[in-house]
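Quick one: structure for this chain?
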Amino acid sequence: MRHIFSFILLTFLLLPVSAVEVDLSKAYVISSGQSAPTSSVFIGGVTEIYDQDLAAIKWLELQYQVVEVTEIDDDDNETTTRQAVCNVIEHEDDLQTGEQDLMEYRIRGTKWSGSYEATSTAYLTELHIKTAQNGFIDGEVIHKTADESANFLRVQVIGYIQQQYCDEFDQVKSYCNTVWQNVSDSTPKSTAKRFQLRFKRLRALEQVHSGKGWGSYNEYHLTLEKDAQGDDILIGSVGTPSERFTSSDTLKGNRTIYLKEVLPENTQSDNFE
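Got it. Here's what it folds into:
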């Protein structure tokens, strides 16, 4: 994938454009869903910025062809070689991508800040989502109190994104009257849906605790929602999963966590590398 993005960047540099900046930081490969060999690849989330005011999200189709090129030297000797040629087709509308691709594009590389309400302590919390691709997510979480020398945790987290639906959703109260269930091929298209981020602590990068220590098995279950002002928030629970796989999906402890996105120009934290 790194070579594909490098080629795209080189292609943009060679194109005759004016006053345009290209941002590939959130670009992603759109899966074709086919396992057979293919000579095309689709890239979504390519951002073109015009005069720092207008930004357009586009997607590219790269079509590879192998052609024979014949060269004649000064002595009229012919040499034929096979070369790979790539055609770059730019699309603005008709974005052929799924809801999960768009969700992953939305959260990839974002930072969030808020609070984690534990049993007797409220921790200042930061979340940095580094990777979101093909349903997989990873990043870092920081929990701390005002006195960081007493309570501080910087931990790597990994997990996945899953789409859920509710068959009895109250639009007025924005509440599911039954239980959120995982989406399947038989899920009706008209039902209310949401994406849930589920990840767990993998390893501590830095930690200090004034008590017994930090739980190493904790999971985070978060959903992307809107607050009263219409801003995106991540809200959910933190706790310990069951020791066995059962039909129950509840977390022990079930502490609340509330995070709001930190826009790049307002980011102040130096804790993330």
